[in-house]
Amino acid sequence: MLPIPGYFRRDVYRRLPELVKRFGPTFHLYHKPGIIRTGKVMNAAFAGLNYRQYFAVKALPEPWIMRFLFEELGFGFDCSSVAELMLARGVGASDKDIMFTSNDTSLEEFECASADGGCILNLDDITFIPLVPKFPETVCFRINPGKLRKGGAIIGEPYKSKYGITYGQIIPAYAAAMGCGAKHFGLHTMICSNERHSSYFVETTRSMLEVAAHIYRKLVIRIEFINIGGGFGIPYLPTDPELHLEWIGGKISKLFRDFHSQYGWMPSLFTECGRFVTGPHGILVNPVLHVMQKYRHFIGVAAAMTGCPRPAFYGAHHHIDVLSPDGKLRSGPRHLANVVGPKCENWDRLTPVDKERLLPKSVRRGDILVAGNAGAHSGAMADNYNGRTRIAGLLDQDGTNKNVVMIRRAEKVGDLFRAIVFPPGLK
To answer: What value, to the nearest 5°, has the Cα angle with vertex 60 and ends 86 and 352?
Structure first.
């Protein structure tokens, strides 16, 4: 899976000029056939287990996409806020279809989680137990392994993280939950982000099964499901390794079978991937507004942090292609350039500060710039700083221009003022 899948260059790029004319020059474009294909690969990889994927709504909170993930792939949803719960329930999810994992959870959030049929409640801290206003029959705890596991650049080292209970709190937490009336129990962890080493997820599963065995020995609780989290990585560079999902599925299935042989029962397996499902199947389409030579060479576009803030937040790399106005890929000699946006902030870039990129010298004003891997944590993380409005979202439903729909309109300036309480006499 390359940073920009071949079907974008083969099938979509030639159609971009028409889409620009129909929908405007700046948008995210998501490709349903690619998302469905990835979802089927995930389901097949773990077919030997009682498996379910809970899509991380934070990655791409778009109801059109959430609906077909739920209806056509059988995915549930990983939610962490009231808004995400509302989106999940809005596409038909309820009860066991939703896993609610939040940190520093408010009373309002707990109440929303228990409403409308409830959900699987995943608690992030032992002190949350007495704060749950309506304790559910099914409860889960997020485990933080501390220094026993390594993290990564995005999510940080587990022992420095705010997430999850410690190993020393595991037995007291589950015992307290039993005392509150819980009858069904799960186990959760999430300690990596964009991890591309396949063995990492096998070792995570192994350690979680050991925790499940420990809880069973101490409290005679049979853990009914283990959620090994998300964090399945995708290649942002051509040299990045790909995950071998079939290999991961085979290794994890063996761990679960061995567990069953030893204890006579076996939990279900959950994951909560977002990026892996939709990330490669979205692009950010941008008009080139300016080509500038200062102390460095700059290409100015309409949307950088308002379309994909990851380079600013994490120094992330997104592959960039440049197309001429008629949809042909720019080629020829290249030079180092920085792609920047219009916010009054030097970090408003699609190429991180001090990380120039080799881009065609032939770039011109009016060209179409495409950033790959923009199907997750791109539009969702965009903000309105500097009064800049967020861009539109389109869904390519079948790989043809005839069935492309707008699923999120571009914001208007008036949208930014709706929550403002103006002083008397001002509008």
So the answer is: 140
How far is it, in rounded angstroms, from Cα 345 to Cα 170?
A: 44
What pLDDT digit, counting tens, does each position of 302-315 carry? 999 999 999 998 88
Between CA 299 and CA 287 the distance in angstroms is 10
* Euclidean distance between CA atoms 266 and 258, whole angstroms: 9
The sign of the dihedral angle between the CA atoms of 4, 42, 61, 231 is negative
The residue assigned the tokens 């809880």 is 215
Instruction: Provide the token pair at 376.
Output: 């997750």
Helices (H) and strands (E) in the chain — how many of each? 11, 17
**DSSP secondary structure string, 246-274?**
HHHHHHHHHHHHHHHHHHS---EEEE--S
Two tokens, residue 170: 């595991």
Q: What three-state secondary structure class fits 22?
A: helix
Contact between residue 6 and residue 372 where contact means Cβ atoms under 8 Å apart: no
Q: How does pLDDT run across 331-371, given as a tens digit for each residue? A: 999 999 999 999 999 999 999 888 889 999 999 999 999 99
DSSP string, 291-318: EEESSSEEEEES-STTT--HHHHH----
Distances (CA, A) of 406 to 45, 55, 223, 412: 32, 22, 43, 15
**Structure tokens belonging to residue 304:** 């950088």
Q: The tokens of 418 are what?
A: 């709706």
